[in-house]
Design brief:
It comes from Candidatus Planktophila versatilis. The protein is built from 15 helices and two strands. The chain is mostly helical. Helix 9 packs antiparallel against helix 14 and helix 9 runs parallel beside helix 15.
Length: 329
């Protein structure tokens, strides 16, 4: 397994990726520096906590289909990661999350107001990078950010006009997670000058793999007894946020699930009840059903890669699909 969690990564490609990701990492930290110490401290909080860096990694990988040394590729990768981090500050306020990326959440440490403003500060820093990359990058970021916001509003509002909850949830995931991961791949192809067919192929792949990534996190949040997802297991149960596993349970017509379904319809504040519900969910058929749904999306992502040339980068993208499936096993 490579240092990026991608099995079978070609050694020469891994060396290149490490060098590029080091540049991204350096830019992330240098770019958020400012004149106000508290803002710099709060901004560094989640950037320094790490994370999987999937979005910038996809940008770098995608850039290999064009001129991988072009100006704007490292900057685009930083844009994608900083956008993601900024949304985490806002998400944690809405979810009242105690942990993020294995550390105390910013809202828990500094309060909601500071956490929200830190997210806003990071969006401002993203805009500065985009201005240097060019108008096409600004347009891509604007359309992506629109989808991120709409996805959050849809999640807050819930299904409308008789829409099935699971269908609604998959659209929320596509907008809240798939859109930025899709944009990350498109940024790399676009800025490097890759052929249009490859750019469009990577855009579709990014959306599919982004959805799969979130569905895997949904399963991990229930099935894992550790903090593997970077959050406290059962966080979504405590907040009453529906996820793939709980929606599959709520679709059950089995009478034995009635009591569990009733609990899942509202936030669960009692920690003893959270523990009991997690125990029940871990042995429920909904886990296997959710893994099958994840597998279907991951297959779609693999299929989307069909038009790409056969090379080490394409092989890495195929292996990334396998790695995401394996995360939830």
């Amino acid at each position: 397994m490579s240092s990026f969690g991608i099995p079978g990564l070609a050694p020469a490609l891994e060396v290149e990726l490490k060098a590029s990701m080091k540049k991204v990492e350096d830019l992330l930290f240098s770019h958020i520096q400012g004149d106000y110490p508290l803002v710099e401290e709060t901004s560094r909080h989640l950037v320094a906590a790490g994370g999987k860096r999937l979005r910038p990694l996809l940008t770098i990988l995608a850039s290999h289909y064009g001129d991988k040394n072009k100006f704007g590729i490292i900057e685009s990768a930083a844009v994608c990661e900083l956008t993601h981090v900024a949304t985490l500050y806002h998400d944690d306020v809405m979810d009242e999350a105690p942990l993020r990326r294995g550390v105390v959440s910013a809202n828990n440490r500094w309060g909601n107001t500071v956490a929200i403003l830190t997210g806003d500060y990071l969006f401002a820093k993203v805009s500065a990078l985009l201005a240097d990359i060019g108008p096409e990058a600004v347009r891509l970021q604007a359309s992506t950010f629109e989808r991120l916001v709409i996805g959050q509003i849809m999640e807050t509002q819930g299904p409308q006009n008789g829409q099935a909850p699971l269908e609604h949830y998959m659209q929320v995931v596509a907008d809240k997670t798939g859109s930025l991961i899709s944009a990350s791949a498109r940024f790399g192809a676009m800025v490097s000058g890759a052929p249009n067919e490859i750019k469009e192929t990577l855009t579709v792949f990014g959306e599919k793999i982004g959805i799969a990534f979130q569905l895997a996190d949904d399963i991990i949040d229930i099935a894992s007894e550790s903090h593997e997802s970077g959050k406290t297991p059962g966080t979504d149960l405590r907040e009453g946020i529906p996820t793939l596993v709980t929606l599959n349970v709520m679709n059950s017509t089995d009478s034995k699930d009635r009591a569990l379904i009733k609990l899942l319809k509202a936030p669960i504040k009692d920690e003893a009840v959270v523990a009991q519900v997690l125990k029940e969910l871990r042995t429920h058929d909904a886990i296997a059903q959710s893994r099958a749904q994840l597998l279907d999306i991951a297959r779609d992502a693999r299929t989307a890669l069909g038009p790409l040339p056969v090379n080490d980068v394409t092989g890495a993208l195929f292996s990334l699909c396998d790695a995401i499936i394996d995360r939830s096993a």
